[in-house]
Specification:
alpha/beta, 13% strand
């Protein structure tokens, strides 16, 4: 082997790990969504579609940089198993809709952050200590100024992919 070929081969071998590392995709984030209604509930479907559209507008595209796991239990009998299943997936965050979805999630996990909507009185229900400062292991509402059901589902512009 000639000296020039050897140096080229050696340089390529040294650069190969850097190129491989540069080509690695960013970590796929995971969002769990536990709906408290059946999958044929039109208003819930519209809210979920708006949520997903807003996520996409912020750069979070399902299948590209985020995976979204949605469960529609439709009945109280299935909601506990769906909540446990979502928690077992270890998503980065779980969105819970309604009290019937939030209670089983709190029983299933204390480590995954839970964001909730459509809870009439989260403080009175014992889900958070206060709307201004929920405990670290408790769920958080997207708005501390008004009940979540009134302001709909919103995604903060601070939630863009890195």
């Amino acid at each position: 082997m000639k000296r020039r070929e050897f140096i080229t081969l050696l340089g390529g071998a040294a650069a190969w790990p850097l190129a491989a590392r540069a080509q690695q995709a960013e970590r796929l984030r995971r969002i769990g969504v536990l709906m408290s209604t059946a999958s044929d509930h039109l208003e819930s479907k519209a809210r979920l579609a708006a949520f997903l559209q807003r996520l996409q507008g912020l750069g979070w595209v399902d299948g590209r940089n985020v995976r979204i796991d949605v469960r529609w239990p439709g009945s109280d009998a299935r909601i506990r198993s769906d909540a446990a299943e979502l928690a077992a997936l270890a998503p980065d965050v779980i969105l819970a809709t309604g009290t019937s979805g939030l209670s089983p999630l709190l029983a299933a996990t204390r480590t995954v952050p839970i964001v909730f909507v459509a809870i009439a009185d989260p403080v009175g229900g014992g889900f958070v200590e206060s709307m201004a400062r929920p405990a670290a292991t408790r769920p958080v509402s997207p708005s501390s100024n008004m009940p979540s059901a009134q302001n709909g589902w919103s995604c903060s512009s601070r939630s863009r992919p890195a």
